[in-house]
Design goal:
The chain is α+β, with helices and mostly antiparallel strands. It has 5 helices and 22 strands. The chain folds into 4 domains: 44 residues; 84 residues, conserved putative lor/sdh protein from methanococcus maripaludis s2 fold, CATH 2.40.420.20; 91 residues, Elongation Factor Tu (Ef-tu), domain 3 (Beta Barrel), CATH 2.40.30.170; 123 residues, Beta Barrel (OB fold (Dihydrolipoamide Acetyltransferase, E2P)).
Amino acid sequence: MKFTGDRMNEVWLKHVGTGVIFTMVLFGCDGSSDEERTRSSSRGTGENRRSSERQSDVRRTGFSDGQMAARTAVPVEVTSTIRRSVSSFLETNGILEAENEVEIVARTAGQIVELNVEEGTYVHKAQLLAQLDDREPLADLEISKVALLDVERAYERAKVSREGDLISEEVYDQALARFELAQAQLARSKVLLAYTKVVAPFNGVIVERHVKHAESVSPYQQLFRVSTLDPLLCPIQVPEKELPYLSVRQPGYVTVEAWPGERFDAEVLRVSPVVDATNGTVKVTLKVSIKGRLRPGMFASVFLRTDMHADALVIPRVALTLDSLGDSVFVVENNTAHRREVKLGYEESDVIEVISGLSLNDQVVVVGQDGLSDGTPVEVLRG
């Protein structure tokens, strides 16, 4: 169908008119005022601007607002890996006991007239601890001296007479016997007199005092208990399979509840030459340095060194993660935590040897690692 020029103009005007009318109808049906339309236009402009800013942040950081909140740096504390000696220990328990401990008893009867020590007193060998009444033993000693002098004179006369063949051999032998008996009685009197002095048998400490001043004692009555407190001994029972790792002068240490966290040096004094067939253990006796603090009877945890690595790479035990993924730690690099699988060696006290997985001076997380995962941003807290 063809249109002439006038016809075409007529059709175009009809369509244009319809479009104009349609547009006017649309604007006429929107019940908004010019002011409301202006506010709506402003809101739309602000939202568009904020949306544009968020898109700009995402392009700059790679994370949305929610992702940025999830990536907030976690505060942690770190420490550097170091090299030091670390040892393996055989761990067991024992009771501390004195190397020398004796009960001092009275060797003669008498009343205590002098008491020179109390419990806890340090004493030296041969120091006078107590004095018994010695008047009767002194009198006996004088009697023995006089008796000896008398029989000695009789013996000398018998000796001269025998040389002159004036008396028989029997008479001479009787005089000699009386002389020797008097000598023995004098020696006995001296011993009994010495027993009135109660002295320390060795250097040590008065652990117990059983008597009081002016108390009368009888022979073999307990007077004092004396112990040597330094060094102390600590006998332990070690399984026989550990025999290849035991030797005299082998070093170790003990700990006690009274002084938590403190080590007391020890070394093997002797190893029993036999194995106890009832329990398959070997008795090992350690000598312990008391540092003026340990006492006999204390319960001790014993750590006997069996091997040592002199230049081991170590970390604090608290650096290990507590998950079930195996032995691992977190290392901080560029304010980011990275999980490292590690192979562990000897453990000693609060440190543990790392055989592989870390290098010297790596920054290992020791506080805050429980909330970390591989790649978590962190903030290192400075002490």
